[in-house]
Specification:
Number of domains: 1
Shape: flat
Number of strands: 0
Radius of gyration: 24 Å
Largest sheet: none
Helix content: over 70%
CATH topology: MetI-like fold
Order of helices and strands: HHHHHHHHHHH
Length: 292
Amino acid sequence: MRAMPPSAALGQLMPHAPAATAGAPPASGHSPVTAVESRWRVAARNVFPFIVVGGIWETVARLGLFPRRLFPPLEEIASAFVSMTISGVLPHHAIQSLLRLTAGFALAALVGIALGIAMGRSRRAEDVFLPLVSIAAPIPGIAYAPIFMLWFGLGEMPAILLVGFVSSFAVIINTWTGVKAVKQIWVRSAQAMGADNRRLFWHVIVPGALPYILTGLRLGLAQAWRILVVIELLAAVPFGLGWLIFGAREFLNTDVMLAGVAVIGMIGLVLEKQVFQRLEDYTVVRWGMVTT
C-alpha cells in the first residue's frame, strides 16, 4: 500500500476544497529559457568542487612535493582508469563489489527499518534492543571482521553479512528516531477521524518518519562501502574494488588505487542522484515535508 503524507491522510476524512475556477490564473512556472539557465547553474554548481579539487591535486603533483609514483598527476590516473575500463578489469571488479554491496545493504535496510519501526512503536522492543544497538553501533566495523570470519569462514558469506550488520545500525537508529519524532497531533487527529492501526501506520507513521529513514539509508550505504573495501581483502574474496585497491598497494600502483577509489565515488554519486534523490523527490519533497 503506497504511503502518503500525513496531511493528505488526514485530509481524506475532511471535505475537499472547491476546485479552482476556470478564470483563475495558472500556477506560476518557469519559462523554457529560465529552466535551461537553472539547469546549467545547477550543473556548474555540482562540477565546480571537482574542478577545485582537481586543480589542487594537479598543482601538488606538478610541484613534486611527493614522489610521482606515490602522487601521480590526473592524466596518469585517467590513463589507468581508461585502460582498465577498456580491458574489462575495472568493470569486473566493480560488478563484484556492487553485488556484495547490494546483498548486504538490502539485508541492512530490511532488518534496520523493521527493527527501527518496532523500537519506535513498542516500548518493550525499545527497552530490549536500544541498549544492544547503543553498545554495538560505536564499535568499528573492522573489529567485527575476525569474528564473522571465524563464524562463517572465508569468501562471500562473511563479507555480505558483515556489510549488512555494520550498515544496519545507522538505519535502525534513524528509523527509530523518525518514528519517535512523528507529531502526536497527527496521530491523535487520525485516530479521532476513525483511522485504524493499519491506516495509521501506512498513512501517518511511515510518511512522517520517511525523511529520517532516507537519512539512515544514506548513512548506512556509506558505512557499507567502508567496511566492504576492507572485508574484500580480509575475507579472501575473489575480485572486488577493495581487492583491487589493496592489491595495487603491494606494487605501489597508486594510479590503479586511485582509479578504484574514483569508481567507488562514482557509484556512490550515481546511487545518491538516481536512487535516493529520486525517491526523496517522489515522496517527502513532493509532499512538502522537506525542501530542496
